[in-house]
Amino acid sequence: MEAWDVLVLGGTLEGMRSAIAAHDAGSNVAIISSSGLGDSNICHFNSGIAAPINEDTTQGHRDDTIRSGKWLCDQDIVSIRVSSALNHISQLETWGLNFRRDVEGLPFTEHSFGHKSARITTTGDTTARQLQNTLEEQCIKRGISRRGDYFVLCFVATSNQINGVVALDMNEGKIVPIQCKTLIVADGGFESAWNITGSFGRGMQLAMEQGIGLKNMEFQSWSPLYVSDNKTSLPLTLIGNGGNIVTSSGENYDIDFSSTSNDICIKMLESGNNFGINGKTINEETETWFSSTKSLLSNRFGLSLSEDIIPIRMSLESTIGGIPVDENCRVIINEWNRWFTGLYAVGDAACSGIHGASIASGNRILDSISGGALAGEHASKWATETEFSGSNNVNDEFEKFSKFIDEQLLDEAEGKTLRSHAIHTQLAEIMENSMGLSRDGGSLSTSIKSLNKLHQSLSDVRLDDTSMVMNQDLVNKLQLEGLLKLSIAALKAAISREESRGGHLRTDFPEMDNNKFLKHSMSNAEDDVKWLPIRKSQSGNWILSPEL
Q1: pTM of model > 0.90
Q2: Is 342 left (phi over 0), alpha (psi -120 to 50) or beta?
Q3: Any idea what the CATH number is for the domain that residue 104 is in?
Q4: What is the pLDDT of residue 46?
């Protein structure tokens, strides 16, 4: 059985950054991912990196982040992450990431949603792609083992301490037991519950199976800048570089950059208007930084950024809720002082505390990079202080899942006509209708019943492919089962939060209620929702008091 000090689940930006940090701290590291190498799930990263480059202190960035999160951020964690932003920008530059520059040679900062000051630094409209290339290069230089098409079947743990994982190696068509001292979950959120093409949240699913309640699952981040096909997102920084949102009558829509993208979406929804992007006001020099966007609009839609009004609509960008973690990205079990030993989570798979109920532009990538660095370093430190454990447990789970997969592939019961895609399509329709930006208790309750029925129908799904090699049919079914459970957990959290806050707009409870709900929800697919207090400062006082 192979064994690693630090095993990273997910070849995402945060996954690669975790692996780099763990390697540099002296650990032997491997990255496994259910997708192929080079797929870092960056298609919905539509902003740059937030950092207070031209500010004397980090206070403005910190306070804007807390306000953007509608006071549901863990304030000490926000302070830690924001304070590290400049160091991460400097590190990325050292590694070769070329940021857009101002006349003084510093990274150029742009205005964007959720920030009162210009604070977003980019490489143009390809920041996430360039960042992926930079991190991949650093992983290759370090000789970090990276394996694609590894689908994790289960986490293996003893008494809330991680022992390893059991995975399906799709290339070889075999079940593989892997022992590890620490495991970092970095495989993204569960956007696929709404849009089919997004992340499935496999790590979140498996964490929930270990008895870990998921935090703030009712919250999502929505972008107003999706082209009307609902699949193609435009960079938010178009607005900060001269582009304007306009109404169907051609009037400019007033934008206050202190508002989050969720706030903008809510106002657009309530107006009942149709909207577009007017890029004609972007000057020629600035437009060169959006060459990829220009090419995409021209090739896919036959539209010109500089000549046409681009029709837009709001759509889900990312989920916010996820695996609860502390300031070092250690996974906690339903309360702040109880940890799942050796288990970490970062990026969209985690609910790190930096975002709260809405995401300020640029903080999502900052969360990925800063969280990855923290998790990798801490996991490596823990790995040096502990021994491998639970090898018998890993082998037992290997035997169990080997039989389970054989049973799935050999199940030829008559009458099975359903396909996973049909159930997934129904799931997306239900979530879009009941867990969109606007929601109410009645539709949420009805949707839970509908999803429970969908979950029961999985037993009637037929696998057309019975091979072990690259069997995406099998993987889709297993992912869908977990995705349904995540969706039910999100619906339960949304029902329990009887207020409107950030990306959670309850039409039957339209006001924000700090007296009752200034706290985190903790939910899973089976139990009632529990609550977790917000972290303040280390002394227990508010860093920034809620504005009531």
Answers
A1: yes
A2: left
A3: 3.50.50.60
A4: 77
